[in-house]
Amino acid sequence: MLMQEARERIAEYGRRMSSAGLSIGTSGNISVFDREAGLMAISPSGIDYFETEASDVVVMRLDGTVVEGGRKPSSEAGLHARIYEVKPFAGGVVHTHSTYCTTLAVLHEPLRGVHYAIAELGAAEMPVAPYRRFGSVELAEAVADTLAATPAKGCIMANHGMVVCDATLDGAFALASNCEWAAGIQWRAMCAGTPQPLTGEQMDEALAAFATYGQVPDPEPEG
Questions:
Q1: Of 35, 44, 118, 160, which residue is the least packed, with the fewest Cβ within 10 Å?
Q2: Could you tell me the strand order of the sheet in which 66-68 lies?
Q3: Are residues 59 and 40 in contact, defined by beta-carbon separation less than 8 angstroms?
Q4: DSSP letters along 157-201, please?
Q5: How far is Cα 178 from Cα 125, in angstroms, rounded to an integer?
Q6: Which positions are catalytic?
Q7: End-to-end CA, the chain
Q8: What is the pLDDT of residues 11-58, one digit of tens each?
Q9: Do 154 and 178 touch, CB atoms closer than 8 A?
Q10: How many CB atoms lie within 10 A of CB 88?
């Protein structure tokens, strides 16, 4: 089975996504891209995540050609493909209809730097891509244009949800979870008063600190 490990991980993370409340029912979608092979594995369309097996995950090329799998791929396959094209570092994409990010999407409100943890995005805020019908080429292009214009690893999709990418599926899922948490903080702050995002200088400091956060390998010794 082509991309067996990736397909197993997508099935696993679909269950995690549902369990974490990041998407309900069959909404949302997940993919992994093997750049060397030029192949993308993506969750199938309209199948409950708790019923999705690795064999249900579809393997395809970014041009839409299905290479392996008997299921219909996610309706947002084109969206995932365009993200991989405009974000060369990306190896995993997670698209959710999580409650708070979708609330901001309905408000056409970006996810702002209300907490330093947003620096995980690689930018001071998560921008809003304009509304286009789900599953359409126009939506894929709107998101691609939005992401191409920012260092951010994701965006709010107006009246729809959110989408993020990272080098790995693990990283993309963690980022989606973190953005949903931050969106919940921002929404609550908006209900209680006027949020006070970090200044540009403060966000720059946070972004620099995140570059060395976690288990970053030590530089190779010279000589």
A1: 35
A2: 66-68, 58-60, 39-42, 29-34, 92-96, 161-166, 154-157, 128-129
A3: yes
A4: ETTTEEEEEESSHHHHHHHHHHHHHHHHHHHHHHHHS---PPPHH
A5: 13
A6: 76
A7: 45
A8: 999 999 999 999 888 899 999 999 999 999 999 999 999 999 999 999
A9: no
A10: 7
